[in-house]
Amino acid sequence: MDLNAGQRKAVFGLIVVALVGLGVYLFVSGARAGGHSPAAATHSPAPQATRPAVPAATPSAAPAGGAAPSDPDIYQWLPFTQAQLGSAAATVTQFGDAYGTWSYSQDATSYVAAMHSLITSELADVIEQGYSVPGVASQRSSKKQVSTGSAVINSIRAFGSSSITFVVTITEQITATSGRSQISGQYAVTAVGSGSSWQVSDIELASAGNS
Asked: What's the start-to-end Cα distance of the chain, in Å?
């Protein structure tokens, strides 16, 4: 069937409208399909359990300057041991106690006998002679003097391979007919010996020397 010009224009317009509608439909359908993701893609993984952070161990601080040094052993530099020094000091202290202890009723022999094992025979003779000096002896007797002695070691003055000289304070508590009194003197006392066997060999006023 032949169409006139007007009819051909109408048919052409219908075809254009149909094509436009089809294009819009396809565009909208594509857009919807692209806006949806598969469930697996949109599902976020479950959060992993977290543990509290453990602080790193801090190493112990080392003492400043390293380990504390031990006290030096001074006896490695001395010609005697600690035990030998203690034995010598004990002998000197006992001697000092006995030297300051006497009575007007004692003669020289009796006085020296009290310290016999603590002193050398040479020193025994010197002490006996000093105790017997007439003026001193008569004063003790006339005043009826009695003394109790005590000794304290103050320091070491000198030492050798077999001798040690101590500075010692000897105090005499004297009782007499005139009352009580106290006399103190500082002496240099030398002990000689070895090991645990010591004897006093000399006593002098500390101011006089005895080194």
From this structure: 161
Query: 165, 188 in Cβ contact below 8 A?
Result: yes
When pLDDT is cut at 50, 70 and 90, the band that residue 9 belongs to is low
Instruction: For the chain, give every domain's residue range.
Output: 81-208
Sheet-wide strand order for 197-205: 102-103, 146-159, 163-176, 179-194, 197-205
For the stretch 128-168, pLDDT in tens is 999 999 999 999 999 999 999 999 999 999 999 999 999 99
- This prediction has a pTM of 0.66
CATH-assigned architecture of domain 81-208: Roll (3.10)
**Phi/psi at 120 (5° precision):** -75, 160
- Report the alpha-carbon distance of residue 101 to residue 155 in Å, rounded: 22
> Measured at the alpha carbon of residue 131, what is the angle toward residues 92 and 210, in degrees to the nearest 5?
45
Q: Pick from 115, 142, 143, 117: which is nearest to 130 by CA?
A: 115
Do 166 and 96 form a contact (C-beta atoms < 8 A)? no
Rounded to whole angstroms, the maximal C-alpha distance in the chain is 186
CB 173 within 8 A of CB 184: no
In 3D space, the residue among 171, 199, 175, 173 whose CA is nearest the CA of residue 187 turns out to be 171
| Angle at which helices 121-131 and 134-143 cross, to 10° | 60
